[in-house]
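// run 5 | inverse folding | seed 20
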């Protein structure tokens, strides 16, 4: 198993969840919100607000100078887009919350948490089933691990979805996704649940986490989880899995999971 290589340091949690435009000249044309990552917020805070040089900001965030420049330019582009097009700006996500509690799969490149007490079961990727053991010999010598409720095989898995069909794409935002595609890994039936909290201004992550707990979901697959969501889901022993791939369909994710169940 390996840890995600690059995590970014942020000194502050953003003071607000976002910004909303008002007095739009054509309210009909209000577009989708712009999502500003925490690291973009931080780059802007360091460079424009605290007036550090880009070199200093890069050192403070623990990234290279070219990376900092890329993050900073992206922040400026997003903020400009929000201002000019009159879009809401939501501050969330990004790689900053890939801290020491996250693991990475070298095969499918997903990131995931492991919220269970029994770390002995941490031997394969929960998404693609790839072995996380570095040394194949070591794996062979390990005693057989009994399958428990903590393992991949018997659980409800929720996938954040942009639509309510298998051809829909993964929705990158957990609390603000359009639908939750809830897969029962025993019956292989899939149930699309509309996210009632999608358009709320606040607490979407909290409410969505609560909803998932009520549906007895054990794993959630998304593109990003808000900073406040992780402790809630960890406490509820719900595993978080992040897929960074830009456009992946629900059916392809379901196939990955079911293949993993059939070929443990
Ligand atoms: Zn994997």
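// decoded
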């Amino acid at each position: 198993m390996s840890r995600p290589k690059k995590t970014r340091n942020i000194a502050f949690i953003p003071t607000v969840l976002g910004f909303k435009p008002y007095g739009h000249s054509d309210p009909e044309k209000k577009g989708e919100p712009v999502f500003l990552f925490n690291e973009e917020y931080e780059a802007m805070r360091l460079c424009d607000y605290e007036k550090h040089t880009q070199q200093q900001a890069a050192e403070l965030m623990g990234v290279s100078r070219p990376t900092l420049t890329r993050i900073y330019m992206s922040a400026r582009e997003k903020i400009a887009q929000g201002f000019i097009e009159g879009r809401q700006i939501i501050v969330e996500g990004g790689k900053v919350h890939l801290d020491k509690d996250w693991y990475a799969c070298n095969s499918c490149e997903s990131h995931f948490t492991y919220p269970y007490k029994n770390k002995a079961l941490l031997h394969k990727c929960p998404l693609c089933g790839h072995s996380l053991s570095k040394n194949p010999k070591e794996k062979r010598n390990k005693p057989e691990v009994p399958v428990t409720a903590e393992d991949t095989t018997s659980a409800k898995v929720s996938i954040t979805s942009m639509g309510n069909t298998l051809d829909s794409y993964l929705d990158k935002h957990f609390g603000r996704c359009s639908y939750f595609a809830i897969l029962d890994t025993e019956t292989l039936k899939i149930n699309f649940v509309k996210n009632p909290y999608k358009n709320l201004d606040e607490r979407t992550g909290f409410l969505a986490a609560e909803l998932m707990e009520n549906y007895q979901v054990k794993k959630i697959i998304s593109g990003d989880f808000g900073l406040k969501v992780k402790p809630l889901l960890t406490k509820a022993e719900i595993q978080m899995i992040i897929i960074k791939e830009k456009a992946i369909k629900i059916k392809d994710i379901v196939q990955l999971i079911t293949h993993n169940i059939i070929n443990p």
